[in-house]
Design brief:
alpha+beta, five-stranded antiparallel β-sheet
């Protein structure tokens, strides 16, 4: 269950985006980390730009290199536009679906809830964050976990209508994964075509 556990503000500053959610450090220091971070930097090469986009996608979804490459190879063999299919696979991960349903405030928190067996898929406990949720499956909170403060706080005031590919039932604290999202509905600022070009080199 490998994951990135280093300083998140440093990653957010590297890309100039709050990829882990609200970031106080980034709002104060919106420039790359390091001694010369605030100085003018030389322009990145074409390869550097593509590599940075892949790194940003990996950090955003909390996926390490090997897992990311496996997903890319799977997307490359599937029907449809490779970059869009890759994002759909990432969005279908259980930890991401838990995050999109508002059960957890961040993907890292969602991953922890899944790993600690607080999450059900079609009524059964699934503790694998990378589990691929299929259209029609119901993702919910385990009965004895419904009173957890972290879940209550995350759900409080969460706008469940902002992601059209999931449907939330507040009475049961569960949501249905309706279908894989269209690219236009995925809010992440990722240029997936650059990732495709990088892996195609």
């Amino acid at each position: 269950m490998a994951r990135y556990i280093g300083p998140k503000s440093k990653i957010a500053r590297r890309f100039g985006e709050a990829i882990y959610g609200a970031d106080k450090v980034l709002s104060k220091r919106n420039f790359p980390p390091g001694q010369h971070g605030n100085n003018r930097r030389r322009k990145s090469s074409e390869y550097g730009v593509m590599l940075a986009e892949k790194q940003k996608a990996k950090y955003t979804y909390g996926v390490l290199e090997r897992q990311f490459r496996i997903l890319f190879e799977k997307a490359a063999k599937a029907d449809g536009i490779t970059g869009e299919v890759l994002l759909q696979y990432l969005e279908s991960r259980l930890d991401n679906v838990v995050f999109r349903l508002g059960i957890a405030p961040t993907r890292a928190a969602a991953r922890q809830l899944v790993g600690h067996k607080h999450i059900l898929v079609d009524g059964k406990v699934v503790n694998i964050p990378s589990y691929s949720v299929k259209p029609g499956q119901v993702v919910g909170v385990r009965e004895k976990s419904k009173s957890l403060e972290v879940i209550d706080n995350a759900l409080a005031g969460f706008n469940h209508s902002k992601y059209p590919w999931v449907e939330w039932d507040d009475a049961t604290k569960s949501g249905k994964f309706l279908h894989k999202p269209e690219r236009a509905d995925i809010p992440e600022n990722i240029k997936e075509q650059l990732i495709v070009e990088l892996y195609s080199k």
